[in-house]
């Protein structure tokens, strides 16, 4: 646990204000473009006030740091202050909304510009949870309803086994009692339109996850942290069909904003305000940059002017310190033992020679 708790110290060293509120920072107006918004965070995970942009490819590292995990490279981003070594959030929920650059959340929450919005996943964070808490039963849920992508691990297999995940299952859920079709004011949205149904099905998934979390509040008592990752693309279909100036887009934005706030409140309630909930809004994802690879047997030096060696492995410093100090300890032990053996009096210090000397005297 000590290894993962040190992760909170990997953020840039910024003093932490005692008694920070649940939503730790106030973001000034003027954020344009894609954004990262923190809807909920515990007092010991503090997001600073400012307009510091964060790259899209660094979002998984940010999630790992908020959960107290170590990352391969330091995150030089002043938005996240150094956290407590003895407290860690019990859950982290990240929702990615495609189709618009920002949502009309309350002004008293932390929000930061998002640069280089390339597609990303939380697979690295899920692998860390699985590795560090293999003996426990953490909840790991990664879901993209529009693409029918689902990954569950640990207790998620039992808690969310009845969760509709395919589009056919979700549409069947919409026809049942208590669905969002009957509980939400659709106004300009139609239940007979394909794009509208896709958007409403994703909102239904948010409501169903909240209901299941309220039903299984024992999840917060497990020592392992839980991870939730949702990607919503229904609003993107609304924009593609109706445009951003349409009443359908305005109604869908209002419904989604309310659903996300309710989801954040439910997650914070289940985990007793020990959960972080972030929302990433991106109008469209950029194609990730690709890097050409070459064989390690290639003899030309086109890629490196000075023929530099490869970077050290991530565990190099750990292995080096273990070997170094072990060698120093063994060397000191050999020196001390050799010194004592050299200055030992066999007739006085050794019981073998002492017994032999006494036997000779008796004879």
From TrEMBL:
Record flagged with keyword Manganese: no
Compartments in which it is found: Cell projection, Dendritic spine membrane; Cytoplasmic vesicle, Autophagosome membrane; Cytoplasmic vesicle, Clathrin-coated vesicle membrane; Cytoplasmic vesicle, Secretory vesicle, Synaptic vesicle membrane
Q: What is this protein called?
A: Renin receptor
Q: Name one GO biological process term.
A: positive regulation of Wnt signaling pathway
Main localization of the protein described in the UniProt heading: membrane
User: InterPro entries of this UniProt entry?
Assistant: Renin_r_C (IPR056780), Renin_rcpt (IPR012493), RENR_N (IPR057318)
Q: Which UniProt keywords apply?
A: Cell membrane, Cleavage on pair of basic residues, Endoplasmic reticulum, Membrane, Receptor, Signal, Transmembrane, Transmembrane helix
The transmembrane residues are 316-342
Q: Which domain of life is it from?
A: Eukaryota
Query: Example GO molecular function term?
Result: signaling receptor activity
- Listed GO cellular component terms? autophagosome membrane; clathrin-coated vesicle membrane; dendritic spine membrane; endoplasmic reticulum membrane; external side of plasma membrane; lysosomal membrane; synaptic vesicle membrane
- The answer to keyword Cell cycle applying to this record is no
């Amino acid at each position: 646990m000590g290894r993962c708790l040190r992760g909170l110290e990997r953020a840039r060293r910024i003093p932490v204000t005692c008694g920070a509120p649940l939503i730790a920072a106030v973001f000034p107006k003027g954020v344009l473009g894609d954004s990262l918004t923190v809807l909920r965070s515990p007092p010991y995970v503090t997001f600073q006030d400012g307009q510091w942009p964060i790259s899209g490819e660094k979002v998984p590292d940010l999630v790992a740091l908020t959960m107290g995990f170590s990352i391969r490279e330091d995150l030089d981003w002043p938005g996240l202050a150094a956290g407590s070594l003895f407290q860690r959030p019990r859950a982290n929920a990240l929702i990615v909304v495609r189709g618009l650059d920002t949502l009309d959340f309350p002004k008293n929450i932390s929000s930061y510009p998002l640069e280089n919005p390339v597609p990303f996943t939380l697979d690295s964070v899920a692998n860390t949870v699985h590795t560090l808490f293999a003996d426990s039963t953490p909840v790991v849920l990664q879901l993209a309803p529009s693409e029918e992508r689902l990954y569950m691990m640990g207790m998620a297999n039992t808690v969310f086994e009845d969760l509709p995940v395919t589009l056919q299952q979700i549409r069947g859920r919409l026809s049942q009692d208590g669905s969002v079709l009957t509980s939400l004011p659709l106004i300009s949205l139609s239940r007979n339109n394909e794009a509208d149904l896709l958007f409403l099905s994703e909102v239904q998934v948010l409501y169903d996850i909240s209901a299941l979390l309220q039903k299984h509040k024992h999840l917060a008592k497990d020592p392992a942290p839980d991870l939730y990752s949702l990607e919503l693309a229904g609003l993107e279909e609304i924009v593609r069909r109706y445009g951003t100036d349409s009443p359908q887009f305005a109604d869908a934005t209002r419904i989604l904003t309310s659903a996300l706030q309710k989801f954040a409140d439910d997650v914070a309630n289940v985990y007793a305000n020990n959960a972080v909930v972030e929302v990433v809004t991106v109008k469209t994802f950029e194609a990730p940059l690709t890097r050409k690879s070459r064989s390690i047997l290639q003899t030309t030096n086109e890629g490196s002017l000075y023929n530099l060696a490869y970077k050290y492995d991530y565990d190099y410093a750990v292995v080096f310190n273990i070997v170094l100090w072990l060698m120093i300890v063994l060397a000191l032990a050999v020196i001390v033992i050799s010194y004592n053996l050299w200055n030992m009096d066999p007739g006085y210090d050794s019981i073998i020679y002492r017994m032999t000397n006494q036997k000779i005297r008796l004879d």
